[in-house]
Write a structure and sequence with these properties.
The structure is a single chain. The protein is an alpha+beta fold. The longest helix is centred in the middle third of the chain and has 22 residues. Helices cover 27% and strands 34% of the residues. Helix 10 runs antiparallel to helix 11 and helix 14 runs antiparallel to helix 15. An eight-stranded antiparallel sheet has the order 4-5-6-7-16-11-10-9, with helices on one face. It has a seven-stranded antiparallel sheet with strand order 17-33-34-35-42-38-39. It contains 17 helices and 50 strands.
């Protein structure tokens, strides 16, 4: 463990020793259980005759921490705490001479420096036998330690307190005393803080307990990315990891594009306040020419960070993302006043973006700043498809912001510019002979044929046309791109691939989230659900409640340098669920909620609460039966009317018989794609509860449920690569792939209408029907394909339609 009060690193290598029965036992050898809560984490240690529960707690608004030690022992036991002092500013800043001494009155080590501006205490109300670091001509020790007093027998509680100040010793001493005496109250207040946050933002009740738990934890993880640095302000950091002997803690400093991608998830979850804070912080450090910041170290105020270091404005994608994120926030929250306040900033960002255009109007990476890829064999290039997609979406975002702020002429101009640009990027990056999008345009202006998950970012915003996007998704759904734990950046068949390559082979939950949202947008729920569930399961594995930064592209394990708590990785559990599977979007100004769900085959009911539509809050209860779909909607807070546009997905085989709102007929339409149909209805919600019923016959669905492999293993799960219906919709062909020779089960909805199946066996189970699939064995590939043809009864279909 190490302790920070930003921008100060106080100590590292903190550990406990248990002294009992004439032995000294290192605590880490006796760790048995880890319990993680939003407000604290507890390690349970157990020896032969004692147990100790060590709880790490950081209050929400105090510059310090408390470690509570609950002891239960048969024999006298004493705990010793040991640590190494750092007391340095975060990289790249540094303090001059620093020192430590034992303060008898506070029973704590005092950490100080020559200017007496920065100060800290590390100790305990019961501390005894302190031993400090020392250095002489003959020997030295860097260890500081103290004991907490003997527990003779039975139960006891000890505290270790860490506190710091950026404004002198008296303030540090005040905080230290407050933490020591107010620990219990502060712990209760922090628990209530997180409980209230979960209750006030969008909450869900799902049939999949793992996804629900991961979603709740991911909301907490994103909130924990908010850091207040007294010298810089309050913003979102990128992630948390120990720094060891350095002063560079993983990614625990401020990042532009990280916070902007995270803001889209915060908006979806209804946490507009945190998004506004993040946008305010990023805009504060906008460069004079309009370029948005990439990295701002916690120690940036102590060095010429933006002048002498290359990281401040290193990325090109933060600038269009800022415009996109601003529009998303204003549209979803209705905070038009903020748009007016920030219009000049947004306009400057666009001016910089426009200055980077090449002759085709695509924003450049080469010589301007990196797009997604920062280094490695995928470079050099001129402009990524990812970056060009963001550039086009920024035009649409700017058009909407102009409309909302009363600049109608600008709005019209940029709406037209967006349409032209979206068409141009489809043409420039599409490789018709390969049926996929190029990774980038090379320095020679020609497409770089390297299929990449980065293509799903333009899909997130609906930029590619349906046919091209679907063809690309089919390729990305293959086992060479999609692992059981998420999406590789490029195919493992590429000569440029390496499973440990940070930007040329590894798996980022960020990529996986991009893919899931894009796949849902283009009506491809099979790979989308696999990606959503992979990210969700990552939140329940590894560091409990957190989603890691990056994993190997070869084996299920985080990279050795990965930050175990990465903020935008947590966001990529939230966005794929709310924006992806549920298809939720809000136009606060129009008081309209769009709800376009693609639920898995076995999800027959779920609910969503605290959906903020302007001043109102809505609750939705979704139910599916063989006879159709019901949606119960209620306004739980606010006044006035909200409009719901409900667009549930049904199969191409299904027939909509009628729609009723509170028992009365309601007009509807059906929109069909090559993949599915969506029933489209609009209705108002005001006081009381509103019940919508869509009567459907012959709906059908199949779902593969993804699971994580054992740690260190390779992928072995099944994938449904594509679904193809016959013209008469009486046959559905599934192209599946799985581990050669393996058996799988696919869940089936409404199996009674199946007449026969080729390539799999239909089985009835207590919890529903499944397709038992046997993947062929043999061949040199670890993954093999299988076709499943499902034939339906045309007689039953006609009877139902009558």
């Amino acid at each position: 463990m190490e302790a920070w009060v930003y921008p100060l690193k106080l100590l590292r290598d903190f550990r406990l020793q248990f002294r009992t029965e004439g032995r000294v036992l290192p605590a880490e050898t006796l760790a048995r259980t880890l319990i993680t809560r939003p407000e604290s984490s507890t390690i349970v240690y157990a020896g032969d005759t004692f147990s100790v529960r060590e709880t790490f707690f950081v209050p929400v608004n105090e510059p310090g921490a408390v470690i509570s030690l609950e002891v239960e022992t048969e024999f006298p036991l004493e705990i010793e705490g040991r640590f190494l002092r750092d007391f340095q500013l975060e990289w790249p800043a540094a303090l001059g001479g620093t020192y430590s001494s034992w303060d008898r009155d506070q029973r704590a080590f005092y950490l100080g420096e020559e200017t007496r501006k920065f100060a800290a205490f590390v100790g305990s109300p019961t501390a005894t036998e302190a031993r400090g670091e020392f250095q002489t001509n003959y020997s030295e020790s860097a260890v500081n330690s103290f004991r907490l007093g003997v527990t003779s027998k039975g139960k006891d509680t000890k505290l270790i307190v860490v506190a710091a100040s950026l404004d002198g010793r008296p303030q540090a001493e005040t905080t230290y005393k407050k933490l020591a005496t107010g620990y219990a109250d502060l712990l209760r207040a922090s628990a209530e803080y997180y409980r209230k946050y979960l209750n006030d933002t969008v909450s869900v009740e799902l049939p999949d307990a793992q996804i629900q738990q991961a979603y709740d934890w991911s909301r907490v993880s994103m909130l924990q990315g908010i850091v207040n640095n007294p010298f810089l302000g309050t913003g979102l950091v990128a992630g948390y990891r120990t720094s060891g002997e350095s002063q560079r803690p993983g990614f625990a400093w401020f990042f532009g594009r990280d916070s902007l991608w995270t803001s889209l998830a915060l908006n979806a979850a209804g946490d507009f306040a945190t998004t506004r804070t993040a946008l305010q912080f990023v805009s504060k450090y906008q460069r004079e020419d309009g370029k948005m910041p990439h990295e701002i170290a916690q120690g940036a105020s102590f060095v010429p960070w933006f002048k002498d270091f290359p990281y401040g404005y290193a990325s090109a994608d933060a600038t269009p993302l800022y415009i996109i994120a601003m529009n998303d926030y204003v549209t979803e929250s209705g905070d038009v006043a903020f748009a007016k306040e920030k219009w000049d900033s947004v306009w400057k960002a666009y001016q910089f973006l426009r200055s980077t255009y090449d002759e085709q109007g695509f924003p450049k990476n080469f010589g301007v700043g990196h797009g997604w890829v920062e280094g490695g064999p995928l470079l050099p290039i001129k402009s990524e498809f990812y970056q060009s997609g963001l550039g086009a979406e920024a035009l649409r975002a700017l058009s909407n912001l102009a409309r909302l702020t009363g600049k109608d002429a600008v709005a019209t101009e940029f709406a037209q510019a967006f349409e032209k640009q979206a068409s141009k990027i489809n043409d420039a990056f599409w490789l018709a002979d390969k049926q996929r999008f190029a990774f980038a345009l090379g320095t020679d202006g020609k497409p770089v044929d390297e299929p990449s998950v980065l293509a799903t970012v333009p899909m997130w915003f609906g930029l590619p046309d349906q046919k091209n996007a679907s063809a690309m998704i089919t390729q990305l759904a293959g086992a060479d791109h999609q692992t059981d734990w998420g999406m590789r950046i490029i195919s493992d068949r590429s000569p440029k691939f390496s499973g440990g390559g940070y930007h040329y082979g590894s798996v980022w939950p960020l990529f996986t989230g991009w893919a899931s949202v894009g796949e849902y947008r283009y009506h491809r729920p099979q790979p989308a659900y696999a990606n959503l569930r992979a990210n969700a399961l990552l939140a329940l594995d590894g560091s409990p409640g957190h989603v890691t930064e990056v994993l190997s592209g070869d084996y299920y394990q985080p990279l050795s340098t990965s930050s175990p708590h990465q903020i935008w990785s947590a966001a990529m559990v939230v966005s794929p669920l709310l924006r992806g599977m549920f298809g939720l979007s809000i136009d606060a100004g129009a008081r309209t909620l769009t709800f376009a769900p693609h639920p898995p085959a076995d999800w027959t009911r779920f609910s969503i609460e605290n959906l903020r539509v302007g001043e109102n809050k809505l609750q939705l209860n979704f139910t599916k039966t063989a006879e159709g779909i019901s949606l119960e909607a209620a306004r739980t807070a606010g006044t006035g009317e909200s409009i719901i546009e409900f667009r549930p997905s049904i199969s191409l085989r299904a027939t909509v018989q009628k729609v009723e709102l509170n028992g009365k007929p309601l007009a509807f339409r059906v929109e069909a794609s090559d993949e599915d149909q969506h029933v489209v209805v609009r209705f108002p919600v005001s006081e009381g509860r509103t019940l919508l019923r869509i009567f459907i016959s012959n709906d059908f669905a199949v779902t593969a449920t993804a699971v994580l492999p054992s740690l260190g293993s390779v992928s072995s799960g099944v994938r449904i690569l594509s679904e193809t219906w016959s013209a008469s919709h009486d046959q559905l062909t599934l192209d599946a792939s799985g581990s050669a020779g393996a058996q799988y089960e696919l869940k089936v909805w409404n199996a009674a209408q199946i007449e026969r199946v080729e390539g799999a066996e239909l089985k009835k189970k207590p919890d529903g029907s499944v397709l038992a699939l046997q993947i062929p064995s043999g061949g040199s590939e670890s993954y093999a394909h299988a076709k499943i043809a499902i034939h339906f009864s045309t007689v039953r279909e006609k009877a139902k339609r009558r």
